[in-house]
């Protein structure tokens, strides 16, 4: 059985946030058939699931462009940020949302409710030069107040149990949050603050009591859970070479939740991220063996935990199960799926990932239907400080069901294997990522698994795909979804959050400009080893569509083949059903051309060819 593109559009996504609210569980879910909006739903105590967010409203935001925690449940009501105008609203189920923040260009994210106020990050200014502070927004509609403005970037506002202190995490250019942040504490009334952790990457902190916090930080090279006292003392509660955190692309992730004298946490590597329980207080000297696994048959738990009493709720997936909202009883380990079922193909029709390490490079292989050598596509994840987990991905199954194998490469620079592995990419973006993808591709060819290999990716994965096409001769074609083709132009065009990212990935400008020129796919398009398919959303503020346009023009100048498709109403990534379908079918048609097989079930794709100059 082959999988249709529309099946992918309707299944292949997951809730971003969950919350236990009294005897109910709330979560958000994507609605590709409703223009790509995110709708907040609740499961009532009687098991009935209903929409909380009315039709036409979209619980998203674009703080730091990638957005952050966009809603909270509070006493049966929903507090959320609305995509269209960026404001915070309050609404009751079945009622109309009421604005809590004034009209204007401000955006809000990383919401948390304390008492009768919403604490969150406010962002003002344009995408290129924003500024941020932490504000308290009264739920009665009174004027908000600004409390903290210590760093260029801020996240994780948390009020202490006694209501007197505020904890937050901040960082400044040129650092990214996975490089170095500061965990700070100050008064809820503003004024001087103290830095409790610095020099490492801290991605979440929660109050243990009025005098200490739990924090996920990586001073040892692994994101572990630490107990941090206001007196400056710290203690690693999980001193093992495993990750209890990850890169912060969306602010507001919950890698752990504290309840009933226990810490529920996600942990592991990029090959498997489990759900575990740590009993507290952790005895002095206790190290390994203190984590009780309650993850069940799921191989990936998202950083979206909510805990209360003897239960934790999270979002989990596995190679043959889509992302589901799951409730776990902390005492018995019993699991209950709360979200509605999705129309997923039978296990026999889905590929099972095989984790391999090739010359130190981590990858997950998805064998295609059929026997013998087959065409393969190397999938390159975005970020590049991110990773591809081995979970059900109908986009992958769409291709494997048609006889195309997939190799997801977690190249040097990926998260989930400790800081040393992700630091392999430092100043080597466009070199290490390309080489690692090439290493896996050549291994596929040499081992007889693959007869031809193409490469594809989105965003930073699009960069690696285009760079591999021009700096390697192993790939017969490349597909770039909203990718970067020239880093020097991108550094000048992109949004504030990533505007100094390339300092660490390639080097500071103008001192290392030659590296930018040497690695640019656009400037070396004459070396392309095959054609390219370029796809881009016209509202993309992270990677300007000009990046794809210029690469297409460069290929044309040198007589290479290419196709360029644009999508109105899409930003950095595909959210609408019609976009997902069109992009996936175009990609299949492209592989039919480069691999040499017919694709009559999808619209034909025309590859243009310029005349070499």
Main attributes of the structure:
single chain, about 625 residues, nine-stranded mixed β-sheet, five-stranded antiparallel β-sheet, 38 strands, about 15% helix
Describe the sheet with the most strands: 9 strands, mixed
Gross geometry:
globular
Content of β-strand:
35-45%
Q: Report strand order across the widest sheet.
A: 30-31-33-32-34-35-36-37-38
Number of helices: 10
User: Distance between termini?
Assistant: 46 Å
Helix content, binned percent:
10-25%
- Beta strand count: 38
Gyration radius (Cα, Å) is 24 Å
Q: Flag low-confidence runs.
A: none
Determine the structural class based on helices, strands and strand pairing. Answer: alpha+beta
What is the average per-residue confidence, as pLDDT, rounded to a whole number? 94
Give me the secondary-structure topology:
Layout: H1 5-11, E1 18-21, E2 24-31, E3 37-43, E4 49-51, E5 71-74, E6 77-81, E7 88-91, E8 98-99, E9 107-114, E10 117-124, E11 131-138, E12 145-148, E13 153-159, E14 165-171, E15 181-187, E16 193-200, E17 202-209, E18 212-217, E19 224-229, E20 234-236, E21 256-259, E22 262-269, E23 272-279, E24 291-293, E25 300-301, E26 306-308, E27 311-318, E28 321-329, E29 335-337, E30 354-358, E31 361-366, E32 374-380, H2 394-400, E33 405-410, H3 419-422, H4 432-446, E34 450-458, H5 460-471, E35 478-481, H6 487-493, H7 501-505, H8 513-519, E36 532-537, H9 546-557, E37 561-567, H10 577-595, E38 608-609
Parallel strand pairs: 32-33, 32-34, 34-35, 35-36, 36-37
Antiparallel strand pairs: 1-2, 2-3, 3-4, 5-6, 6-7, 7-8, 9-10, 10-11, 11-12, 13-14, 14-15, 15-16, 17-18, 18-19, 19-20, 21-22, 22-23, 23-24, 25-27, 26-27, 27-28, 28-29, 30-31, 31-33, 37-38
